[in-house]
């Protein structure tokens, strides 16, 4: 059955309610319920039952379950490295011992460069940027909204421009499927690499973020947030509801333990190193074929196991204390896991309603090839905004974009780059995006505040990207 415009309602209602009420759970469930009402011909009780089932059923998908368990384990890792004195030792080393971080700008640059260097997987990037930078950014009164913006605007953009991570593996598989179907010819790796210079949104986002940090010139709601943090010392606005309750997850360095940044760096190093190893293993020796969700899950689990042997072996804590910290950190992540489950559920609703296909059908085959990349960028942005997933947008739009580019005689490389750019742009703008939720979690920011303060920057970079697609689409 074709639902047409109605397929847009669940996501739109969830997004509007989330912004209006700041209650993400209620908004997401309202969107799910509307979707099921559409599919059950507006019969309430069957729709309500199916809505509840749709949230439960997300756990039937292995990658979803691994991602949600990952969020619990992240809380455990964060709590452990705080209790071990790792965070305190790192902050002391940078701000007091070597005095490398002396002001707000330096604190934000630290977060920015960590986001650039840790390019293996977007959720891992957010986690590490938030964990390492938050105490230092707090010290120098950087608003949590600004830190969330840095987390979000380095993770996905950087990961999207590198082919040897879970993002690259997904994109290569989708491109290879089009080669196998005979739509295009060539090598998927070569096609993806040649599309990187056309990933205009990601490139613009990274440049804009660096300029904002260096100049200190913010605008829109972010400017108000930064003024509040600097003048009043309030890292969050009054009444803000962080995705992660800091009182629940934060612990002081365990009494009798000497702070040492190695206690933080070693577990995080294991986390980072395990990603490519896991991709290699799950890809049967081909890193590009590896499973991103499995690799992230294995990586955080390996970091947790390593932390146990390391901390207990160094007599930083006993086994019972270690497990207490594990439970404490995991418990604090229950709100994050719940939001992710609801976000995945509404994403599934959008798939059932074929929201992406409907959006694509509105313009497919109706426009000149010169405007192909620009149209593909807009379509990808809207689909990602509506569904809250970059990877889901890739799955929908890569086949459509390549087929459109061939039919319209548009630039193939630019068309692929436009899909990737649009998917990230839509994600950065959407309150139901899983990566945006993780960025809010990593920075301990109010989720809706993060979306509101980041949106003007996403729109600015989106406008820059769209202009480049139009201009270059005409001349290339």
TrEMBL record:
Give me the segments passing through the membrane: 12-34, 68-94, 106-130, 198-216, 264-283, 295-313, 325-351, 371-398, 410-426, 455-475
Where in or outside the cell?
Answer: Cell membrane
Membrane protein topology class: Multi-pass membrane protein
Q: Which domain of life is it from?
A: Bacteria
Asked if the keyword Cell membrane belongs to this entry, the reply reads: yes
UniProt keyword Transmembrane present: yes
Question: Which intervals hold domain Na+/H+ antiporter NhaC-like C-terminal?
Answer: 158-474
InterPro entries associated with the record: Na/H_Antiport_NhaC-like_C
Keywords tagged on the record: Cell membrane, Membrane, Transmembrane, Transmembrane helix
Protein's name in the database: Na+/H+ antiporter NhaC family protein
């Amino acid at each position: 059955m074709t639902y047409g415009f109605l397929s847009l309602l669940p996501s739109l209602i969830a997004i509007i309610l989330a912004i209006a009420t700041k209650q993400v759970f209620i908004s997401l469930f309202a969107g799910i319920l509307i979707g099921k009402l559409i599919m059950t011909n507006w019969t309430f009780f069957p729709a309500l039952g199916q809505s509840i089932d749709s949230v439960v059923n997300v756990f039937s998908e292995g990658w979803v379950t691994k991602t949600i368990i990952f969020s619990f384990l992240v809380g455990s890792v964060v709590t452990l490295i705080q209790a071990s004195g790792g965070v305190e030792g790192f902050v002391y080393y940078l701000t007091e011992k070597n005095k490398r971080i002396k002001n707000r700008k330096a604190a934000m640059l630290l977060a920015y460069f960590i986001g650039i260097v840790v390019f293996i997987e977007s959720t891992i990037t957010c986690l590490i940027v938030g964990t390492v930078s938050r105490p230092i950014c707090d010290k120098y009164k950087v608003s949590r909204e600004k830190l969330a913006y840095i987390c979000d605007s380095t993770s996905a953009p950087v990961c999207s421009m590198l082919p040897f991570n879970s993002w690259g593996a997904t994109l290569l598989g989708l491109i290879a499927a089009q080669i196998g179907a005979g739509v295009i010819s060539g090598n998927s790796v070569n096609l993806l690499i040649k599309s990187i210079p056309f990933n205009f949104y990601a490139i613009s986002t990274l440049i804009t973020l660096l300029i904002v940090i260096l100049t200190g010139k913010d605008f829109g709601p972010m400017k108000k947030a930064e003024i509040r943090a600097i003048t009043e010392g309030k890292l969050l606005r009054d009444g803000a509801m962080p995705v992660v309750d800091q009182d629940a997850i934060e612990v002081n360095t365990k009494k009798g333990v000497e702070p040492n940044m190695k206690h933080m760096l070693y577990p995080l190093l294991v986390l980072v190193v395990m990603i490519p190893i896991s991709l290699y293993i799950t890809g049967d020796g081909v890193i590009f074929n590896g499973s991103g969700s499995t690799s992230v899950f294995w990586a955080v689990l390996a970091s947790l196991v390593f932390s146990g042997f390391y901390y207990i072996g160094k007599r930083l804590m006993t086994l019972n204390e270690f497990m207490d910290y594990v439970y404490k950190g995991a418990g604090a992540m229950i709100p994050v896991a719940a939001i992710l489950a609801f976000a995945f559920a509404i994403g599934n609703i959008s798939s059932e309603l074929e929201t992406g296909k409907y959006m694509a059908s509105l313009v497919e085959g109706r426009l000149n090839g010169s405007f192909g990349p620009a149209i593909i960028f807009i379509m990808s942005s809207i689909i990602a905004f509506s569904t809250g997933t970059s990877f889901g947008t890739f799955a929908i739009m890569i086949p459509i974009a390549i087929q459109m580019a061939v039919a319209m005689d548009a630039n193939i490389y630019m068309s692929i780059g436009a899909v990737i750019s649009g998917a990230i742009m839509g994600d950065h703008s959407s309150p139901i995006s899983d990566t945006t939720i993780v960025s809010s979690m990593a920075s301990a920011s109010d989720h809706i505040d993060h979306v509101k303060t980041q949106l003007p920057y996403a729109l600015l970079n989106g406008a820059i990207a769209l202009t480049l697609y139009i201009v270059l689409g005409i001349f290339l």
